[in-house]
Design a protein that fits this description.
It is a single chain. This protein is elongated. The chain has about 550 residues and is of the alpha+beta class. The chain has 16 helices and 17 strands. Helix 5 packs antiparallel against helix 6. Strands 10, 11, 12, 13, 14, 15, 16 and 17 form an 8-stranded mixed sheet that branches. Helix content is about 45%, strand content about 25%. The protein has 3 domains: about 120 residues, no CATH class; about 160 residues, 2-Layer Sandwich (Beta-Lactamase), CATH 3.30.450.40; about 210 residues, Alpha-Beta Plaits.
Length: about 550
């Protein structure tokens, strides 16, 4: 009856790994074993006091077969450990370490068999030696696969680390720098560059380069050549060669042929179905080249980079829109802001000529109103007053230009064009008078001082735009029409709205007014007819439009 050697369980002194080895305890007790996990070297120890003697060379040659009368050392061996099912399964790391220990054992036995057959060719059957040889070949093949899996695992770990680093960077410029550095590190490249498509034009531009120098300089212009990168961006397919000097595809790129680049890897940077640019990497002769596995890894890296680029662009776009919205909210209603942002209007220094209506208002007798108030009280009252006026202006789609002391300036018809700007301006003026009257009644009931306001409106062509310096710009309007609106306000009586004949001609179909006749205004040589507006009944489209407006509080 054949007797098989039960697997022996050993553990390193550091308790980092457990191995199951098909060798008797007596043999293992005389060996020095190296733990593949923690690196320690130790001699296995066992609790049994009577360990058997080490086996002979013949037992090494045929480890799995015993004679019908097994040696005493084998018979006296301690009983095998508990069944494998009761022991915890080895971890992946322990499994790899156990495999390497088995490889060492098989190698030792193969050498023992070789030595026995060398001295006694007929001592061991050829079937056994052939079987051992096949086992050794299988171990070599498995070892190669394990090495490949280890490299793939390390590549995935490097890719994950790089992806996490890219996703943490929100600003585009430093992100592109990080992409280039991470690509060189992750893909074992010596140098490279990143080409990005310009927004709008789609033209390719070298955003970042590392170690290129004049390696790909055009012979005629001396400028940086992006031939392969441009081709990859256009075709959307990666480019890979392990030997550029022997690759016919490279012959059409003169700058590459003149350079010392040997291995080249170039992949498109695509986000979904859009090409954002190209990542080019190369290695010179004498340095490690690229492989097909690295090409696949590069494609995954480029995909992660594209996602990070889109996130950075979105973040910067949100930041820019937030800043623009905050700037516009100082003088525009939320509805007008939405219209501007949807149209993509870009306000810069300068302006354009537009037809609009300009409204001015101020506090009549402000000096007497404020002389008995403490500064803090005055500020609180004026802020409450200005809030009421601003709400009315925004409800009528006006633009709050500025507060000038106790005066208010508003624009209707700019920056968003509105054909009924005069109707909005007059309607807002009358509602501001009503709101001020209600506020004064409230203050009077609270024992606070009160005042009356006066107001003027004029309509006509103005120059509108962001005016100022790069450090400080304000959206406003300038021109004769603005000056005349200011004169209408100073010419009005307390508690009234005074408009010019230019504004009256635009609203007279819907309004009632008192003709005050022509007056002379400061800075003008001719007289201007003015009107005190009593009421206005906007057309139906105006009421619908105002109903859609979002008042700002």
């Amino acid at each position: 009856m054949e007797q098989k050697i039960a697997p022996t369980r050993i553990q390193c002194p550091q308790r980092e790994a457990v191995y199951r080895v098909g060798r008797p305890q007596a043999e293992l007790a005389q060996m020095r074993v190296k733990c593949k996990k923690c690196g320690c070297t130790f001699t296995p120890s066992f609790p049994e006091p009577n360990a058997p003697a080490p086996p002979s060379a013949s037992s090494l040659a045929a480890p799995a077969v015993a004679t019908s009368a097994p040696p005493a050392s084998v018979v006296a061996a301690p009983p095998p450990p508990a069944p494998a099912a009761s022991a915890p399964p080895p971890s992946a790391e322990e499994g790899v370490d156990s495999f390497e220990l088995v490889e060492e054992i098989v190698g030792n036995r193969s050498r023992a068999i070789y030595e026995v057959r060398r001295d006694s060719p007929d001592a061991i059957p050829s079937e056994i030696t052939g079987h051992v040889g096949r086992i050794a070949d299988a171990i070599v093949d498995v070892k190669r696969q394990v090495g490949s899996l280890r490299r793939a695992g390390q590549d995935l770990e490097n890719l994950l680390e790089a992806s996490n680093a890219l996703n943490r960077e929100r600003n585009l410029a430093p992100l592109l720098e990080l992409i280039m550095d991470s690509a060189i590190k992750t893909l074992n490249a010596e140098r490279g560059f990143l080409v990005m498509k310009k927004m709008g034009t789609g033209a390719l531009d070298v955003s970042v380069a590392r170690g290129m120098g004049e390696a790909l300089a055009d012979e005629e212009t001396g400028e940086f050549s992006t031939g392969i990168a441009s081709t990859v961006a256009h075709e959307g397919k990666p480019f890979f060669t392990a030997n550029s000097k022997g690759d016919e595809r490279v012959s059409e790129f003169a700058s590459v042929m003149r350079s010392d680049a040997r291995a080249i890897l170039c992949v498109p940077v695509n986000f979904q179905d859009r090409n954002l640019g190209t990542l080019y990497l190369d290695n010179r002769a004498g340095t490690p080249g690229f492989t097909e596995d690295l090409l696949r890894l590069a494609a995954s890296f480029a995909s992660a980079a594209a996602g990070a680029i889109e996130n950075a662009r979105l973040y910067e776009s949100i930041q820019a829109e937030t800043a623009k919205r905050a700037s516009l909210s100082r003088y525009l209603s939320p509805t007008v802001i939405e219209d501007i942002l949807k149209r993509g209007d870009d306000f810069e220094l300068g302006g354009s000529t537009v037809d609009c209506s300009v409204l001015f208002s101020d506090v009549a007798g402000f000096t007497s109103f404020s002389e008995n108030l403490q500064p803090g009280e005055l500020v609180l009252l004026m802020n409450e007053y200005f809030t009421v006026l601003a709400n009315v202006i925004f409800e009528n789609h006006g633009t709050l230009d500025k507060f000038i002391g106790d005066a208010t300036m508003a624009i209707f018809g700019a920056p968003v064009s509105e054909p009924d700007h005069a109707i909005y301006a007059v309607k807002a003026g009358l509602e501001m008078l009503e709101a001020c009257h209600a506020l004064m009644a409230k203050w009077e009931g609270e024992g606070k001082p009160t005042f009356q306001m006066r107001m003027g409106v004029n309509s006509g062509p103005v120059i509108a735009g962001n005016l100022g310096s790069p450090q400080r710009m304000d959206y406003t309007v300038i021109g004769d029409a603005v000056n005349l609106a200011s004169r209408m306000e100073t010419s009005s009586e307390r508690g009234t709205l005074c408009i010019s004949e230019y504004t009256w001609n635009l609203i007279k179909e819907f309004a009632r007014a008192e003709d005050k006749g022509p007056i002379m205004v400061k800075g003008k040589s001719e007289e201007f007819r003015v009107y005190h507006v009593l009421s206005i009944d906007p057309p139906k489209r105006d009421a619908d439009y105002v109903q859609r407006a979002s008042p700002r509080v």
